[in-house]
Amino acid sequence: MAASFRCVLVLFVIFLSALNVATAATCSDCFIPSRAAYYPNSDEKGTESGACGYGTFGATINGGDVSAASDLYRDGVGCGACYQVRCSDSTYCSDKGVTVVITDQGSGPSTDFILSRRAFGRMAQTTDAAASLLALGVVDIEYRRVSCSYPSKNITIKIDENSNYPHYLAFALWYQQGNSDITAVQLCETKNLNCKLLSRSYGAVWTTTSPPSGSLSLRMLFSNDVTGDETWVVPVNNIPDNWKAGDTYDTGVQVNA
């Protein structure tokens, strides 16, 4: 009987261990412990020179609730991803925390996030508590990835100011909803559908030194690390044949996954 009991007990422990591993691997809503700091300047919002290549958009998107990330930057793939971040001290911190958009790369002492001052303070319960958080400078937090939401906005193509028609084209993609990543982009001629795979220059900026001629169509590959799903999305609207540096073009499509 003792040997049988030990056998059952071992099997039960193995079952619980396997269950815990499976739960950890599939738990997309679980919070992960870390630490966060904030940009060491007086600007309440983000930086206009962030490593994602968003420019002024990166400072003002989401009302200025933005952040730099270290490992979560993921060589630029993480640009535009949204995270719920909440600090851990119940004396100062709210249960909801703040939702931030990754617009830059950066790290501090054992931190995953460097938030804008605005976002850092919004983790607090009150204005006075926000001042106390800012005085601390670095705080313990927990975070999880959440879906981005931009009501009444489609994914938008922003042509980089360094683009040179028709020889060099660079652009970033704005207002991407959901919690998937854009992992590949193709640029196609609309007339004959010849396509070329673009290079990620840095951050969220995609480039080509010899763009196809005429009106151009994009194909964007959305990848979800949690579900493993990959989906190509083709915008409704094209980039016009006379595209200009600095212009923005509404793709006519949005994603939610």
Automatic annotation (TrEMBL):
Chaperone in keyword set: no
Presence of keyword Oxidoreductase: no
Keywords: Signal
InterPro entries: Expan_Lol_pI, Expansin/allergen_DPBB_dom, Expansin_CBD, Expansin_CBD_sf, RlpA-like_DPBB, RlpA-like_sf
Region forming the signal peptide: 1-24
PANTHER family, per database record: EXPANSIN-B3, EXPANSIN-LIKE B1
UniProt family annotation: Belongs to the expansin family.
Name recorded for this polypeptide: Beta-expansin
Species this chain originates from: Heracleum sosnowskyi
Lineage summary: Eukaryota, Viridiplantae, Streptophyta, Embryophyta, Tracheophyta
